[in-house]
Design the sequence.
């Protein structure tokens, strides 16, 4: 939990956590969601995927997490510590924040005393201290998402998958959670694979933006982002930032036949 | 970048308008049924005194006679209370068994597709067959005493338990299932930590319906069998054949009140157990 040096492509550790080669996914009903996807996520990277709705972004994450096997190609994931944050918080409504955050450790058979401590740490990390006894229905959307983040953090993930986690939140909350996520990323040293519809969110968060085409999803372009971490919110108003967003948007439009 | 911890007083101020609202809502829910009751009593008197002449007034004795001729008659009320006790035993035992069988059956169906496919149709059939026609048969098969009454009661009360529990178990959110799947949780863990808790609101809703039906079931068997220690069913049957209409109405009202009481009890129990996180008013 110590603050890491800027996480951009550390020269010491370049091992790949995730390696997809020529991955394709065709569902039993004949829908081809992905085709010929090559993608790598290295330690220290935060990769963001943008692409039109229905192009197979969620499918990509489901394959990475092991929920669904790909129908073609090589899918190597070099860790079992995978965090997965879904689009909605998927909290268990009968459990309070503490018990929800403890869930994954509980399912993995971690003893009670230990998982209580781990959960408490995660709750503190996402800024929910004091809300341990609250039930999900009494939380705001942003707080639910934080709880969901904390729940995955208890796994101490090496690879963190995010499926449009902040898509349902208002702009202010979203920007705030973006900053908190960047802080977590620099402190906790996981690699990220993040899906979003928002180009500026993609550029702001990541070390690499990957643009996908419409269905069947292919990777049409990749943009490295090298603003230093932790990111200064003010970079959003710089010309460089705007230019990069412009390029990503452009690639998106090109790919969207 | 950090969020402020919650402040307790903030919640306190939030609480107040909420309580005011609930009490207002409560009175609002009580007033209309009360008005309906008054309306019914008025019509009842009207029919008793205006539409029926004296010789035929026994068809619908005026409401107060139900009290003066039945509830306030020590021998009548003690008959009714003793019968109610027996009926209550049958209804509660039948309901308990229906709950256990219903939940177990639904859990089995949720665990194995083939069990659902091969047995759910019979749950539906059980619901659809005219139980009244079966009642005499059940008497022949199982005798005419408590066990037979309990069986009739179970048959009538079972279906809502089965279908509600199954529905509850199967309506678990897909994302929540995947959450468990990602941790490689076993079936038993998924059942106990996810499906069962998620099904509790539906199970309690089923219990409420079954509770009402169990009272009906306990009376129906007894009404037809008229053997062994008389419960409310036998009593109603006797009052009918002797045209003791005030007593008859008293017995029917007692049975209904008992049904309402256990219906309300399960509503209360459900609120106690899952009301904290589940909003019953939404369903
Ligand atoms: N189990 C499935 N069976 C058949 N088709 C599916 C299945 N899951 C997804 N699809 C289809 O695959 C395509 C990609 O779906 P996916 O959910 O990955 O898209 P997405 O990029 O995440 O979209 P969105 O941005 O709207 O979340 C869609 O056309 C979808 O209808
Ligand atoms: Mg998606």
Sequence:
């Amino acid at each position: 939990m110590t603050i890491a040096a800027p996480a951009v492509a550390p020269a010491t550790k370049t091992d790949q956590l995730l390696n997809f080669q020529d991955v394709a996914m065709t569902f039993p009903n004949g829908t081809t969601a992905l085709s010929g996807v090559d993608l790598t996520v290295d330690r220290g990277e935060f990769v963001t995927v943008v692409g039109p709705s229905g192009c197979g972004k969620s499918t990509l994450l489901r394959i990475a997490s092991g929920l669904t096997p790909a129908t073609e190609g090589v899918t190597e994931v070099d860790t079992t510590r995978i965090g997965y944050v879904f689009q909605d918080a998927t909290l268990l409504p009968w459990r309070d924040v503490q018990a929800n955050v403890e869930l994954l450790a509980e399912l993995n058979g971690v003893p009670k005393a230990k998982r209580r401590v781990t959960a408490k740490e995660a709750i503190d990390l996402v800024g929910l201290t004091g809300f341990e006894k609250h039930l999900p229905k009494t939380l705001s959307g942003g707080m639910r998402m934080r709880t969901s983040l904390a729940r995955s953090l208890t796994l101490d993930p090496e690879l963190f998958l995010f499926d449009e986690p902040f898509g349902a939140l208002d702009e202010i909350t979203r920007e705030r959670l973006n900053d908190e996520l960047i802080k977590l990323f620099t402190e906790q040293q996981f690699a990220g694979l993040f899906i979003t519809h928002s180009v500026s969110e993609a550029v702001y968060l990541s070390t690499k933006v990957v643009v996908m085409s419409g269905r069947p999803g292919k990777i049409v372009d990749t943009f490295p982002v090298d603003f230093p971490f932790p990111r200064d919110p003010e970079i959003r108003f710089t010309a460089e930032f705007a230019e990069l967003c412009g390029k990503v948007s452009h690639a998106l439009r090109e790919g969207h036949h | 970048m950090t969020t402020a911890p919650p402040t307790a007083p903030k919640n306190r101020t939030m609480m107040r308008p909420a309580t005011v609202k609930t009490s207002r809502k409560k009175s609002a829910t009580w007033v209309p049924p009360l008005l309906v009751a008054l309306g019914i009593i008025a019509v009842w008197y009207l029919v008793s005194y205006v539409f029926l002449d004296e010789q035929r007034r026994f068809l619908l004795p005026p409401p107060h006679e139900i009290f003066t001729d039945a509830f306030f008659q020590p021998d009548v009320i003690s008959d009714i209370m003793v019968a109610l006790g027996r009926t209550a035993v049958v209804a509660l035992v039948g309901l308990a068994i229906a709950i256990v069988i219903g939940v177990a059956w639904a859990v089995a169906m949720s665990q194995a597709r083939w069990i659902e496919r091969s047995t759910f149709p019979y749950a539906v059939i059980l619901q659809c067959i005219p139980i009244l026609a079966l009642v005499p048969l059940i008497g022949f098969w199982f005798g005419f005493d408590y066990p037979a009454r309990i069986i009739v009661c179970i048959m009538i009360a079972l279906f809502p338990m089965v279908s509600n529990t199954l529905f509850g178990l199967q309506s678990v959110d897909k994302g929540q299932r995947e959450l468990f799947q990602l941790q490689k949780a076993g079936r038993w863990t998924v059942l106990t930590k996810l499906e069962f808790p998620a099904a509790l609101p539906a199970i309690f809703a089923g219990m409420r319906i079954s509770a009402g039906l169990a009272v009906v079931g306990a009376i129906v068997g007894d009404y037809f069998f008229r053997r062994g220690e008389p419960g409310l069913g036998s009593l109603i049957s006797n009052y009918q054949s002797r045209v003791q209409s005030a007593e008859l109405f008293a017995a029917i009202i007692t049975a209904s009140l008992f049904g309402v009481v256990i219906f309300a009890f399960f509503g209360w129990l459900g609120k106690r157990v899952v009301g904290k996180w589940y909003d019953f008013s939404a369903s």
Notes: Chain A has seven helices and nine strands. The mean pLDDT of chain A is 88. Chain A touches chain B through 29 residues (CB under 8 Å).
